[in-house]
C-alpha cells in the first residue's frame, strides 16, 4: 500500500489517540490505586454489609488502566510499522479490555444508589459492639466496624448515622446490653477537650447540647464513597468514549492495509 498523505494523516491521528489512551490509562490506574488504598478507612462499613462492589469496580479499573497503557504502546508500534498481525492482536485485546471497563463503570455507577442513610444505619445497629458473633466473618466484621465507628465519630465530631437519636429511636446491639442509666450512645459521641477527656460525663449521658455531638456521620461516610464511585464511573466512561473512536479508526486503518 502506498504511503499517501491521507494514510499518513490517519496514522498520525491514531497515534495521537493512542497516546491519549496511554495517559488516560496511567491516570485511571493512579485513581483506582488511591481508591483501593482506602485513605478514609471506609472498607469496614461496606464489608459489614457484604456489599463492597465499589472496591471491585476500582480493582477492575486498576487492571484496565494498566492494560490500556501497555496496549496503547502495542497499537502505536503496529500503526507505525503498518503490521496487520500486530494491529489485529491490538484490536482483539483492546475489545476484551473495553468490556472489562464497561463492567467497572456500570458497577461503580450503580453502587452509588446504595449510599443512603438506612444502608449504613442498619449495619450500625446490628453489628456495632455485637456481643456474641458466631462466625469468623461476624467476628471480623464486628471488630472492624466497631473500630471504624469509634475512630470516625471523634475524628469528625459526629454521632451515629443521622445523629445521637439513632441510638435511642431504634433497637440495637449496643443498647440491648446496657441499662437506661448508662450511656445511651457510645462514649465516642461525647465532646472532649484537647486532651481527649469528656467535657461532662453527666451532660453527655443526658444529651445536653454542647456535650454530645449532634451531627450525624452520614456525610463523612457516603461523601468519600460517592466521590470515588463518581470518579471511577465517569472518568472510565470518558475513556470508553475516546477509546471507541480510536478503535473504530484503527479498524478502518486495518481494513485498508495491504496483506
Please state the average pLDDT score: 87
Q: What order do the helices and strands follow?
A: HHHHHHHHHH
Give the terminus-to-terminus CA distance: 9 Å
How much of the sequence lies in strands comes to: under 5%
Biggest pleated-sheet summary: none
Helix content: 55-70%
Judged by helices, strands and strand pairing, the structural class is mainly alpha
Radius of gyration: 26 Å
Task: List low-pLDDT spans.
Answer: none
Number of helical regions: 10
Shape: elongated
Please give the number of β-strands.
0
Task: Summarize the structure in short.
This protein is an all-alpha fold and 259 residues long.
Q: Explain this structure to me?
A:
It is a single chain. The protein has 259 residues and is mainly alpha-helical. Helices cover 69% and strands 0% of the residues. The protein contains ten helices and no strands. It has helices spanning 5-36, 43-47, 53-81, 84-111, 117-127, 136-156, 166-169, 173-176, 201-206, 218-256. Helix 1 (5-36) packs antiparallel against helix 3 (53-81) and helix 4 (84-111) packs antiparallel against helix 10 (218-256). It is elongated. The mean pLDDT is 87.
Amino acid at each position: 500500500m502506498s504511503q499517501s498523505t491521507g494514510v499518513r494523516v490517519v496514522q498520525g491521528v491514531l497515534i495521537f489517540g493512542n497516546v491519549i489512551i496511554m495517559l488516560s490509562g496511567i491516570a485511571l490506574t493512579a485513581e483506582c490505586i488511591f481508591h483501593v488504598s482506602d485513605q478514609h478507612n471506609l472498607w469496614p462499613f461496606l464489608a459489614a454489609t457484604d456489599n463492597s462492589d465499589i472496591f471491585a469496580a476500582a480493582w477492575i479499573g486498576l487492571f484496565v488502566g494498566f492494560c490500556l497503557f501497555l496496549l496503547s504502546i502495542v497499537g502505536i508500534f503496529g500503526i507505525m510499522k503498518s503490521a496487520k498481525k500486530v494491529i489485529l492482536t491490538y484490536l482483539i485485546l483492546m475489545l476484551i479490555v473495553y468490556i472489562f471497563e464497561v463492567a467497572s463503570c456500570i458497577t461503580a455507577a450503580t453502587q452509588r444508589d446504595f449510599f443512603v442513610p438506612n444502608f449504613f444505619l442498619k449495619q450500625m445497629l446490628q453489628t456495632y459492639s455485637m456481643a456474641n458473633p458466631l462466625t469468623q466473618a461476624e467476628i471480623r466484621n464486628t471488630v472492624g466496624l466497631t473500630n471504624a465507628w469509634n475512630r470516625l465519630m471523634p475524628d469528625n465530631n459526629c454521632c451515629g448515622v443521622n445523629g445521637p437519636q439513632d441510638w435511642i429511636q431504634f433497637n440495637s446491639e449496643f443498647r440491648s446490653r446496657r441499662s437506661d442509666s448508662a450511656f445511651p450512645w457510645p462514649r465516642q459521641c461525647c465532646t472532649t477537650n484537647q486532651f481527649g477527656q469528656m467535657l461532662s460525663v453527666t451532660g453527655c449521658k443526658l444529651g445536653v447540647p454542647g456535650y454530645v455531638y449532634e451531627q450525624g456521620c452520614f456525610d463523612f461516610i457516603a461523601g468519600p464513597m460517592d466521590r470515588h464511585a463518581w470518579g471511577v464511573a465517569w472518568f472510565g466512561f470518558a475513556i470508553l468514549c475516546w477509546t471507541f473512536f480510536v478503535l473504530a479508526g484503527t479498524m478502518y486503518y486495518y481494513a485498508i492495509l495491504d496483506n
